[in-house]
Amino acid sequence: MPIADDYREFLNRNLSALPEGCQKVIFDHLRYEQHYRDGFFELIVGRTLQELGADIECEPNNTETNSRPDFVARFPDGMVIVEAVSPV
User: Fold this and answer.
1) Distance between alpha carbon 60 and the CA centroid of its chain, in Å?
2) Spatial separation of the C-alpha atoms in residues 75 and 15, rounded to whole Å
3) CB–CB of 79/53 below 8 Å?
4) How far apart are CA 55 and CA 46, in angstroms?
5) Quick one: pLDDT at residue 33?
6) Are 60 and 72 spatial neighbours (Cβ–Cβ below 8 Å)?
7) How far is the C-alpha of 62 from the C-alpha of 37, rounded, in Å?
8) Which ranges in the chain belong to alpha helices (H)?
9) Computed from CA positions of residues 50, 69, 27, 40, in that sequence, does the dihedral angle turn out positive or negative?
10) Total structural domains in the chain?
11) Collapsing DSSP states into helix, strand and coil, what is residue 63?
C-alpha cells in the first residue's frame, strides 16, 4: 500500500538521522507492539531536539540519580535532560 511505503520511508529517514546508539534503542521499541507508541513518541522528541540544534544522547546512565533519562540534549548554550512521557 502506498501509505505503508510512505510511513516506512518516514521511519527509516528519521531513524537514520539519529545518533547510532539512539537508532537501536528506538528501533527496539518500535519492533514490539506494547512499546511501539513509546518508541514513536521518543523518535519524534529526539528528532525535534535535533532540529532545534541539540546534539543528543539516548538513555545515558546517570550514576548520581541511578536513572536513565530518554535523552540528554546539549545545545550551544546549555544542556537539557529529557524524559519523554506521552499522555495516554
Assistant:
1) 12
2) 20
3) no
4) 10
5) 84
6) yes
7) 25
8) 2-17, 20-30, 33-51
9) negative
10) 1
11) coil
- Residue 7 amino acid letter: Y
Q: Please state, in angstroms and rounded to a whole number, the distance separating the CA atoms of residues 76 and 85.
A: 25
Joined together, the cell numbers standing for residue 81 give 535532560
pLDDT of 8 reads 92
In a domain, residue 32? The reply is yes
- Beta pairing partners, 68: none
Q: Is 11 exposed, middle or buried (0-12, 13-18, 19+ CB in 10 A)?
A: middle
What domain range is 46 assigned to?
Answer: 2-82
The pLDDT score that the predictor gives to residue 85 is: 87
> Residue 88 domain-assigned?
no
Cα atoms in the 13 Å half-sphere on the side-chain side of 68: 5
Q: What is the mean pLDDT of each run of 10 residues along the chain (88 residues)?
A: 91 95 91 88 96 94 78 95 85
The whole-angstrom separation of Cα 4 and Cα 22 is 23
